[in-house]
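Task: encode each sequence below as structure tokens.

Item 1
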Amino acid sequence: KLVSQIKESTKIPVLGHADGICHVYVDKSASLDMAKQIVLDAKLDYPAACNAMETLLVHKDLLQNGGLNELVSDLRSEGVELFGGPRVSALQELSIPATHTFHLEYNSPACTVEIVEDVFAAIEHINQHGSAHTDCVVAEDHKVAEVFLQQVDSAAVFHNASTRFCDGARFGLGAEVGISTSRIHARGPVGVEGLLTTRWILKGSGQIVDGDKGVVYTHKELPIVA
């Protein structure tokens, strides 16, 4: 709240490290085993982190094929407190109480769960209720993944990888000052590059952070795509 208040009330450009309302969208094409691993890691690797999952969105077909039940069961078995959007909280068999808002960063082992029609509904939900921090799609359908990666307006968008990877050290940037979700100003003479900001797109195959156990990160320069 303090960061948001400062950003809203000052005329000075602010590099603000504010809300981290991160989403994981599980598509109907997703590998359920991969989805479970990513969802649990994104929520539980460090629940208070700004890149932890706060809202789980699932394709409507997962209600019919049992995928939603399995995701809910796994989260509950790990002690995660669940709150539902209108569609999920209406399902008596899940017994999930309704959330009072989608714009909520729990910073604890808790999250919101909601059903969406498709990837386009997920994108609309994220762009409306998210904080433009880090959002993930779990899908085997690469067309769905590309639509998500291109249309979700967040600083970092991931395909088949935990939101917990959004981190300065893991990206090879050294000590992290913060994670900006805004488009900050340039200073001095401004060319085209001064008008641009970086948007991070990560494509994985089910990678999770899991406390960085036994992991050594190596980094290499990659071309920037305009």
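Item 2
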Amino acid sequence: MVCNENQEEAVEHRWKWGIEEIAVVDQYTYLGVEIAKDCSWNAHMSKVAEKGKARAGKLHPILANRHLDTRIKLTVLKSVIVPPLEYAGEVWEGNKKVVKELEAAQMKAAKIILGCSTRTSNAAVRAELGIQSLRSGRDARKLTWQYRMCGMGEERLPRIVWEAKWANKKRGRQPTEWVKVVEDVWKGLDIDEDETLETEGLQGFKEKISVACAEREEQNLRKESKDKEGLEVYGMLKEGIGFKDYLHGPMDAGTKLKVKFRTGDIGLRERRRRHRTVDEEDDEFKCDCGFECEDRVHVVAECPLYKKEREVYVTELGKIDGTYREMFEAWNREERTVVVLGHSRLGETFLSHLWQSRKERLAIGDRFCRNNAPSSRGRVVNGLTAKACKT
């Protein structure tokens, strides 16, 4: 430890652990946190960003695997890549450059999962996968930690440190106080600080903060969509399903039926070029089964029309050799997900389009033909000839 009280001559204090002298260093790692001599968090954040990028690089073969379920890849992202990027996020606050590096590490992995361009909107990718920005996660944890300290006794060390006054200011740029950081977070969420901190129960407080962060994410999404594409609303997925992998992966006709039913979940720029505008007045989703809602959420397995279509399809599967009827007979997780329509006009046409193309997909040879190769001319099934087409 080096002391320089009179600013004239430095006085060094040497500490020992037993007989071993502790060296004086500019930076030290303790519990995974990089503690710098000048109390700056930039070194810690840079190391965290590099660690996240390294993990994303190691897992690239898994994230880019088109034959792997997107939910599995999303779980890898949330459980392996993101945690290091969020570590100790309650206490640190770095400069904008380093914060962007952290966000870039997460978005790089997310775009690999969806297989989209690196120029695709970050907000649209997060909406497609159902994830939030690292900033929202850090802000939520900062405010949660503040809520915990407000409930602590005055004798508790975190409370003492939080309320302690800073020493005399030195020359140069002053370090940012944690209290100031939290004040900026409250301003960014645009909610009343005193009223929210008076919430009874930690769970209720977390729910309020979560709602506020989600509203901010949605505002950023709407702002970006209006500025760049003139779209008012992106299709948002509730369970995180990247349809690019589903539509282009190796699937049987039964899986394509379920995917085609939910094509309203389109959210990325590359798959929304045909729908450049949205009617502001007609912002209510209505399914042909009679279900209506304003948030465009409709559970696939609960739709009577889909159940009816499913029964007919399972019956016809029994007439075709080489299909996987048993895989389609049981309700699986895909059918328990929701259909989210990003454009109201799709609600009027996607079911009718499904019915018109069902028999064509039954005759498609894109799963297997007699010689285990895709058919280019079509096959005769139940007396019908259909040309091979892409779904």
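Check on item 2: The radius of gyration is 28 Å. Residues 243-386 form one domain.
End of task.
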